[in-house]
Amino acid sequence: MLLNFRTIRSQVYFGVGVLSVIVLILSAVSLQGVMKFRKLTKNIRARSVELPLAADLSEHVSELRSYVWKIDREKVSLFGLNSVDFDINVSGMHRRLEQLQDSLDRYRNQLENNEIEDPRFADKSREFQFVAEFQNSLNEIRCLVEEDCWSQSSEPFTMLNGMKENLEQLQSHTAQLPVFMQVRTHNFAENAKAEYRTWITLSVLFSVAAFGMIVMLANRFRNGLLLPMDKLIEGSRHVAAGNHDFRIQLDSDDEVAELGNALNAMTNNFQEIKADLNNQVQLRTKEVVRSEKMASVGFLAAGVAHEINNPLASIAWSAESLEMRLQEILNPDPDTDEETRNTDIEEMKNYLARIQEEAFRCKEITSGLLDFSRMGDVQKVPTNLSEVIASVVDIVKPLSRYRDRNIHLDTDPSVCATVNAQEIKQVALNLITNALGSVEAGGTVSISVESENENAVMRVVDNGCGLTDDVKEHLFEPFFTRRRDGQGTGLGLSITYQIVEDHQGKITAESDGPGTGSTFTITLPLVNQLEKVTRYAA
């Protein structure tokens, strides 16, 4: 089955295979070198055993030669000696010859039994030739030393000279043995030099090739795995940091690229899910805000209905009185003087003026309620906050349930902020009605609007029941309420908090504890002067 070299798995298999081949080749080269070194050591050790034997052989030849030369220097005929002296000389010659023969036999046995693998050391033909010639010369000397030879010879000194000549040959032969070894070692060194140079060259070539393969594999590993993994990790960090628009771009076609594509797909799915959830949250938030706003409108409508009853009653009473007077004017009594008639006409005008005044009052109340209940859009424009807050106070202040509370309004007419007026009205209504609901009869709610450090600041301060630490901790959470009347959904302050956040503002609640009142502070960005000029010019 063919490997797909685009995958990391196949690349790893290939890399392991190449490394295995490199290791095997280098191991084979190293093992071959070690084996050759072992073989060389073994051969040298085997041939080195011959050196002591050759030295021993040379030593015995020297002893025999010295003994013969001693006899020659004395110039004494062996036949002139007594029998005791003769026996001593002959036995000395025999003893030395036996020692020499024994040394030669040991050297021969070593040559025959010494197994050498290297052919450059295994050639023993010259040594065996030396042994044969040495044995012949030794046999001739032994023959000369035999007693019969000495007793039958008429010229013993002539035979002594022959013995000396044979000993000279033996000495010459034994002197050649180290030369044989030296020449062979020199030749071996020359041959070995060429061989080990070849092996060194091969080792260097294999090492360079192995290093090149390792560098190639390392580069492939870096480009194929490490760099893509770095890109993958960097992309994951971007996504984890909230940059969901970031996409991992990999040029490879392996498992890392597959993982990168999976992460990109996961990010796409996450963005789609997030967008869908955000859309649902926005829809639900709008619905909740609309519901809360309608609840606020209903709350206001209940108070407004009571407020409208008074002007409507006045209108009805004035209309009834006008109807009665109108009958008298249309059918005048002949006895009525002009002054009385003019007085009735003035009263009718007063009734009409009162009806008109009370009608406009009803219109103003209903217009404020309609203006507050109008949903509008979410567009934010530079708005005078003092006017917005004042309009809310005008709606709340006449409500019967709050008539026994005091509302103080202190605003700076120059404070403008880029806001959605309807949403800020709802924020103000929630805070003001909460403050009014937390104070007892005769309590006071102070509302101020001012600018501080390039921000518009609205404060709603009351001297009511105050806030505990637990209430402050959960105050802006949805469905959390601690109203004394047990009413409310617990969404008012949560929606207020969300509206302020949407306006890049901040809302805080402060209280020293129960019974100490509370302070709600809203901070919104101010409108710069150029934007205000443009806005009002338009």
TrEMBL record:
Ranges annotated as spanning the membrane: 12-35, 199-218
Name of this chain's protein: histidine kinase
Catalytic activity: ATP + protein L-histidine = ADP + protein N-phospho-L-histidine
Residue ranges annotated for the HAMP domain, each copy included: 223-275
Organism of origin: Mariniblastus fucicola
Keyword Membrane: yes
Upper classification of the organism: Bacteria, Pseudomonadati, Planctomycetota, Planctomycetia, Pirellulales
GO cellular component, one term: membrane
Alphabetized UniProt keyword annotations: ATP-binding, Coiled coil, Kinase, Membrane, Nucleotide-binding, Phosphoprotein, Transferase, Transmembrane, Transmembrane helix, Two-component regulatory system
